[in-house]
Amino acid sequence: MAFRFTQDQTLLADALGEIASRHWTLEHRSARFGGDIAPEKALRRELAEAGVLGLSASEAAGGMGMGLVDLMPCLEMAGRHCLPDWVARHLLNLPLLESCTDGAVAASTGESIIGLCVEGDLQPDCDQIDVLLRFTAAGLETCQNYQGENLETVDAGRPLRRLDPAGSGRLIAEGEAALELRKTAFNLAVLGDCLQLLGLAQAAMDMSVAYAKERQQFGKPIGAQQAVKHQLADALIALEFARPMVWRAGYAQHHKQGQADGRCSAAWLLATQAARRVERAVLQVHGAMGYSFEYPLHHLLKRSWAFRRNHGNKGQHRARAEAWILENDHV
Questions:
Q1: Domain boundary residue, one of 155, 173, 191
Q2: What is the distance between the alpha carbons of residues 187 and 193, in angstroms, rounded to a whole number?
Q3: Range of the structural domain that residue 217 is part of
């Protein structure tokens, strides 16, 4: 299969990267990690004014009607700049909201941010989410006044809340329709994790390569040492092997192919494995500097740790991937 993104899709991601480079700099991220929410609110205004928050809404709702394949370069770019997680989730969740109820017009303009709780009771970024889609035993609910307990988390830029028991929202889908939506929502959430993991890992690699060229030991850059080269090369190979699997899974999900469940889980397995390898390599390259709170590497690593444990576990994804492979002997 020959697959490549169009020029428009890559240019859109570049435009998002330019917005992030101006309005979500290291200083902004550091302030958010320190508890200041003002930079995040300013970023939300900028993304809304640029039309980014309406990319996945239909044209009837005032959006651009972009599908998952169109969004994939943007989601990877969001990871590369360590944008708040709600940005990617909003874009992925907006079509789910539009398929069930009204509210897409407000969401497409950034007036409301859409969150999603597929399973469990943990929800990040509640201070930015205005409408929460939540799957319960009864079906899919939409909640606007949801409460919960704020939890301590390693990624201070992605605050986490344990939601109160479900049942206070408005039921918008039930039965078979809700089950189908849950499956779609889970796959989209997994792909959102994977694409952002690719961006985070690439940013960490770029930072480490630059550091290895600059840091001197014994009169020469540490990047000249074979042990450092090999660690970074192995991590890059893992990352480059994972990327096409994630893209292919996104293509399958976008086109509603029957193999989408297995491909999404296979993509998760490779993406999380690659992210783990990159995390280890870049920490080794940076040495003690990599553990410093004042050095920005921890922004990327902590977000990567969170995404690797976000939706499902290795056993669940391995079972889905194995089922897909065994059912398709031509894979």
A1: 173
A2: 10
A3: 183-327
CB 113, CB 45: distance < 8 Å: no
Q: What is the pLDDT of residues 294-322, one digit of tens each?
A: 899 999 999 999 999 999 899 999 999 99
What pTM, to 2 d.p., does this model score? 0.94
Looking at the fold, whether 13 and 162 belong to one and the same domain comes out as yes
Q: Is the pLDDT of residue 97 over 90?
A: no
Mean pLDDT of 1-29: 93
35 Cα distance to chain centroid: 21
CA distances from 65 to 6, 27, 55, 89, 160 (A): 16, 33, 6, 16, 30
Which domain-ending residue is among 120, 154, 173? Answer: 173
Which CATH number fits the domain that encloses residue 90? 1.10.540.10
Average pLDDT, stretch 51-59? 92
Residue that has been written with the tokens 């497409």 in this structure:
108
Pair 11, 155 in one domain: yes
CA distances from 116 to 10, 99, 254 (A): 27, 14, 19
- Does residue 178 form part of some domain? no
Name which residue leads in pLDDT, 121 or 85. 85
pLDDT for the residue 220: 87
